[in-house]
Write a structure and sequence with these properties.
The chain is an alpha+beta fold and 137 residues long. It has 4 helices and 5 strands; from the N terminus they run H-E-E-H-E-H-E-E-H. The longest helix is centred in the N-terminal third of the chain and has 15 residues. It binds zinc ion.
């Protein structure tokens, strides 16, 4: 499979970062206190955001990235051109979220926002986070 690396324009990147930071404020992180905001940009320019939602039965907790992707898919979106994730430390998506993203993205620029460092951001490519991912098609 050929992977085409894509990148975000400055305006798209700024919109995504802002949406991820705003989404983080809605996180329900009652147990870990680790709040995450995510925003995914569909190819029609629409942004869908999500925040982590924890549960007393820990296994039922869902990450911000999956909330954003599932919200977008439920709205009919299937193609994505960018993702931003806002956390303390600018962390990468977990393995489960990477596999969910793999269902819809061969390549995707991901902006990792560190809210502890004045919202500094670095961009990574999806293929670097989950090389040779599991795909049926
Ligand atoms: Zn995750």
């Amino acid at each position: 499979m050929t992977v085409t690396v894509t990148s975000l324009g400055e305006a798209e990147r700024a919109r995504l970062i802002d949406a991820a930071i705003r989404a983080r404020a809605s996180a329900y992180a009652k147990y870990s206190q680790f709040t995450v905001g995510a925003a995914i940009l569909a190819d029609d320019g629409t942004i869908y955001s999500g925040a982590n939602v924890e549960n007393a039965s820990y296994g039922l907790t869902i990450c911000a990235e999956r909330v954003a992707v599932h919200t977008a898919v439920a709205a009919g979106q299937r193609k994505f051109v960018g993702l931003a994730v806002a956390t303390s430390g600018g962390l990468t998506p977990c393995g489960a979220c990477r596999q969910v993203l793999a269902e819809f993205c061969v390549e995707l620029p991901i902006v990792l926002v560190d809210v502890d460092q004045h919202n500094s951001a670095r961009e990574v490519q999806f293929s670097a986070l989950l090389p040779e991912c599991f795909r049926l098609a």
